[in-house]
Amino acid sequence: MNPGMNRGMNHGMNPVERVFRSAGVTGWLHAVDIDDGREVGLRADEPVVLASVFKVPLLLELHRQAERGLLDLSERVRVPAADRTAGGTGLAAMLDDATLSLRDLAYLMMAVSDNTAADVLLSRVGREAVNTLLDGLGLTATRVVQNCRDMLTSLWVDAGVADQSDVTQACTDPEVVARLRALDPALGNRSTPREMTRLLAMIWRDEAAGAASCAAIRRLMALQVWPHRLASGFPFDDVAVSGKTGTLPTLRNEVGVVEYPDGGRYAVAVFTRSLSTAQNQPRADAAIGAAARMAIDQLRTHI
Amino acid sequence: MDLVRHLGYFLVVTEELHFGNAAARLGMAQPPLSQRIRRLEEELGVRLFERSSRRVALTEAGRLLVPEAREIVARVERMRDLMSDLARGDAAVVRAGVPADLGAAVLAALIAGFRDRRPDVRLSLTEMGTAAQVAALLEGRLDVGLLRHPVAANGLAYGPVLVRHPGVLLAEGDELTEWATVHLGDLAGRDLVLFPRDAEPGLYDDTLASCRRGGFVPAEIICTDRVEFALGLVLSGTAVAFGAPAEVPGVVWRPLAGTPLAWRCSPAWRTEPGPYVRDFTAVAVQVLKENAGMVDEGVPPAPRVAPRPATGFLA
Predict the structure, then answer these.
(1) Same CATH fold, B166-261 and B3-84?
(2) Do B314 and A279 touch (CB under 8 A)?
(3) CATH of segment(s) B3-84
(4) Where are the domains of chain B?
(5) In whole angstroms, what is the distance from residue A72 CA to residue A57 CA?
(6) B260, B105, B81: which is closest to B167 by C-alpha?
(7) Is A152 close to B174, i.e. CB distance below 8 A?
(8) What chain A residue is nearest to B175 in terms of C-alpha separation?
């Protein structure tokens, strides 16, 4: 028995909106059929905070520079143990000096959202280069103005804690969350749900870069390890889910592509913000998958 | 001059903002009232009212005087009442405010305990929320209160802070009753029945902030200070409530894991506590510990967020 969920509220509300509402989040969504352009949206043109989703355009620019001969993806880069950008995964969590190729750094950045790997790659390709690429693709609402270290620094400055290790705890305080600049799309890395699905559709149609580069990006997005967001809406062996998550206090995002066994391919971008400040909210994570499935199901009703 | 009486005239004029009406209320003619206000202004060396032919308005000094004058007048009245009670041979009275959800047994123990200690003093109890108690204490209508924290009020002094950690009240048959302890996050999406914010502004905000922190944002909040009404909503499965175990068939209590909610309470009074207020405080603290399961405020356990890479920032 769970009376709060069973109340017959919100009948007639957009079903995607209902999924968000019952998980205690505000949601922004856009889903598009990659091959016929049919689309479903909810606040799809509003600016949203990308958080780690910015690693997708960064990855694309890395491959575009490799195509132009500006860098070699197999070039080995030394990542010293000292002064790494913080994070709970990948090199950000490892203790010793490491030497990896640029493309293996890209793997860590995409598979486990490694913040250290992302900052090494962004300093290599340059923020302006990423924005120039986005302009060229017509994605002018999408901007990369910060690296991971900038975002994390703004969190601990705004939270008013002396030690970065106290940030996670401080950011469950609703009063602290209310003053975080990192949650304002105008101030950091940003986009809209519609621009994110356009970017993904171009990658899946080999339009964002050369076919080999697009294939390499699709490979990395399929290697992401997280099962709790977009993938949780499609618990089927014959459906492929590729994606990139993004997380900041109260924000849970994922953009990705869902591929059905009948050949249907759908780019979907889901951005959420929860009223609760708890870090662990499996219902909010799962709402991303549930909303995506509902949107994609709407795109498939006419098949 | 009789300063207290003049302050009394002043307060009536501030309420009426009209000398004719104020004089009528005081049962006197207008000229002597005007004269007395002028004398008060001379005594204090400031103008208290702007007078024009059409209206009377308080000056800045007048506005500052209002709360001070009220306090002085109320305290003098109280002193006179107390002395005249004694002169007539009536028992002295201590006026105490207590929260609505104290419960019959605790209330009875409080009255019995005070009677044992001070058989000569009558205890006059009023059921009041914290906001009303603060106002009544500051205006001299209460001698002592039992307030819920956090309280933002200047001019009050507090006795020992006691704390209790409420659990959750669920309907029998609710799936969560299968757990020995319930996490706040388990309640996500439920409706909550809670005391009204008007009555307990500090504790209401504090409780909801702790809920947000713990992953529980109620779908709807139903406010009531009636315990029976709250239990009815719990019993019907409409909402969950926070509190102590209820001896009501069909309602099941479970502790909240990690004691995320701390409801603090302490006796409070204005200025120096008199002997009756000290006695009431001592009895209340003892009764709240022995009969209401409250304990001395210790060092609160630091809340923590256990690191999990998949849900950490920038994952």
Answers:
(1) no
(2) no
(3) 1.10.10.10
(4) 3-84, 91-155+269-291, 166-261
(5) 18
(6) B260
(7) no
(8) A1
ipTM (interface pTM): 0.77
Residue in B closest to A249 by C-alpha = B313
Q: How many CA atoms lie within 13 A of B248 on its CB side?
A: 21
- Average pLDDT of the residues in A73-90: 96
Among candidates B218, B220, B307 on the partner chain, residue whose Cβ is nearest the Cβ of A88: B307
Q: Check A89 against B315: CB less than 8 A apart.
A: yes
Question: Nearest CA to A149 among A76, A83, A81?
Answer: A83
Q: What is the pLDDT of residue A2?
A: 40
Residue A187: both structure tokens together: 């101030």
Query: Within its chain, how far is the Cα of B32 from the centroid?
Result: 41
Average pLDDT over every residue of A3-20 = 67
* Residue in chain B nearest A151 by alpha carbon: B314
Q: Do residues A240 and A8 touch, judged by C-beta distance below 8 A?
A: no
Give SS3 for A215: helix
Tokens of A139: 């994605």
First-last CA distance in chain A: 37
Contacting B residues, span 143-202, partner chain A, CB-CB under 8 Å: 171, 173-175, 185, 188-191
| Three-class DSSP category at B255 | coil
Name residue B1's amino acid: M
Q: Pick from B297, B251, B286: which is nearest to B106 by CA? A: B286
Verify whether the Cβ–Cβ distance A169 to B303 is below 8 Å: yes
| pLDDT value of position B90 | 64
Residues of chain A contacting residue B216, judged by C-beta atoms under 8 Å apart: 276
SS3 state at A76:
strand
CATH class of segment(s) B166-261? alpha beta
d(CA B189, CA A284): 11
For β-strands B56-58 and B49-51, DSSP reports them as: antiparallel
- Inter-chain CB proximity A249 and B212 less than 8 Å: no
* Inter-chain CB proximity A1 and B175 less than 8 Å: yes
Q: What is the mean pLDDT of each run of 10 residues along chain B (315 residues)?
A: 90 90 89 92 92 85 90 82 68 89 89 93 93 94 95 90 95 95 94 96 96 94 93 96 92 94 94 88 95 84 80 78
CATH superfamily of A24-300: DD-peptidase/beta-lactamase superfamily (3.40.710.10)
The three-state secondary structure class of A245 is strand
Classify B91-155+269-291 by CATH class: alpha beta
* Interface test with chain A among B168, B206, B210, B311, by most A beta carbons within 10 Å: B311
Residue that the structure tokens 């602290």 belong to: A176
Sequential DSSP letters for A81-95: STTPPP-SSGGGT--
Contact A275 B217 (CB under 8 A): yes
**Mean pLDDT, residues A86-91:** 94
Q: Residue B278 corresponds to which tokens in the numbers above? A: 């000290």
